[in-house]
């Protein structure tokens, strides 16, 4: 067929299919064009929307004639609502009303919500409404998290103030990812698709009691229409005076049908990292020392993909699957120069390492949801599996008056299976939750050590070892959430977890059997005095189980005289958390907190004869009390600023004679982000910000202060389908790690400085229907994060 005929046929078909439409102009009370105003049409379960241009004009193609509900939404506030009938094309000009619609009203089964506050204090969480923050649009999810109160997010890690090892959820379902894999996935999410971010510092009984850090829940916007969309992303970082760059590319596709939803993501990258560090050990009351200067580099190469699918059997039944795959093969290299003196005997030596790693991770989940009534009650069944295979080829050299060379081949195989059932039963004023969960964890690790002699690998049976780890977890929970009256809300829950674990170190002839069961209560109370003042108080008890790598007694060689090792006797730590929260108006939040952590663990360094090693041990309890304050300033049309301050007092007590607790004292961290809008449409933005930590203490470590600044420009072009971010990280090149560890007979001062100053450029292009979000449901799989840690 002639190409011109095909093109004319396609145009004619498109015009015929879009014969129904509504267009017009939106103006304010002064008869001026109302730009960036949303027009929403609702017909049964279908929604269609558009945003006015710089002349206040809009046009919405429709699939069929009929009766629609028309809403005009300006700055998140529903100003106009009316019923209209469309037959063919309709010209409709609307003048925005001055009065605001009620906070919530129902019209013919359709719920309309007025503008949400930027911050909201719920009974068990703090909510940041991303869709109401102009500065948070046109960026990825990691950057949006960086603008969230109480959260600090970088391309390396995400944490909550005063806490660590935070877990991330999407639509109330935990991501089955950890470490770099999680960061890569979050970078595929656009902030324009995020409705809100919930910071849950004391998670309810419904969630795993694992982790002292709490949870972050990313809630995506709901689908407003059928169809598909996609996006392409690419980014890169250039480092000052370095020949290498870091790159990342990704693509995503979303499809939303009447019954089937599909979301896919693909990403690959090549990240480069380099660090200069030292570790200086100085004896107390003697002349002993052990000083090491190091230079290391890491080329982290990865690729991965994600597929999520949901099928709506009917209005009450939903099934879905989720599969993640990631592959990485980083190259890690290090050079160490050591000077040491023991009993007045001096020795200098050099060591290096060249490690080639391969890691393959498979995550698969499946779920089935059943709606039980019109009040939102439902039953959820889910199953999860994670397979993690890691294989490394590591070469080490130690040079004294002779050269000792070795080859190490560590192999780790994790298998994690879990199944759970969650029941939500709602009544008029009471919401109840209950559930059961079973988890099986198996980790088979093989540490193959070879001495290299005359170019031959000779197995060292003394240093080689096999380690087998098995763990079963059983959990049950129940909770209730009830509205006392219009001002008071309460929630309470109780979770019980029982753990049975066994660790077998074959060569060391060590078998560890541990069994324990614990209750984990949670309680919440909130009081909403009026629309501008909300108060809350909550309590929770949590547990932090050891990473699998920290339980493995393998000796990971650094040189002939240095190694790190795991501890098969490592126990979980527990924490009690109490918080008081207050939100003023829509942009000022205060949270006061107290944490008591029992049996905390950390790395300690030990010198025995001519050997030095590091091991993770339970050795201290810690009290921490603090207050964090966040404020969003958006009074000026050309400026949006976010300020966050966290101040705390920490006191640790060591009960292990090998470590000395750091002196009690104060600490604080500070974030300040500014966005300057250079045009009325706010599509050209200058960014300027900084973060800072003052000296603080935890366990046996004193952490020196640190700060970093950034600046850049953000562009939203082609009706916000093309997004470009260009900025400079660590402008003054000040970001580094420095501190001191305390021991009975010596102190250790450490320092690390990476290539933190870089120029970062990211480009994202979106195409298709931007209202389509695809499959969004996640399934809880908290245990997967424990496979990401090590000694």
UniProtKB/TrEMBL annotation:
The keyword Cytoplasm is assigned to this record: no
Keyword check for Cell membrane: no
UniProt cross-references to Pfam families, sorted A to Z: CarboxypepD_reg, OMP_b-brl_3
Annotated ranges, domain Outer membrane protein beta-barrel: 371-765
Subcellular location: Cell outer membrane
Record's signal peptide: 1-19
Keyword annotations of the record: Cell outer membrane, Membrane, Receptor, Signal, Transmembrane, Transmembrane beta strand, Transport
Gene3D superfamilies the UniProt entry points to: Carboxypeptidase-like, regulatory domain, TonB-dependent receptor, beta-barrel domain
Main location: membrane
Membrane topology field: Multi-pass membrane protein
Protein name: TonB-dependent receptor family protein
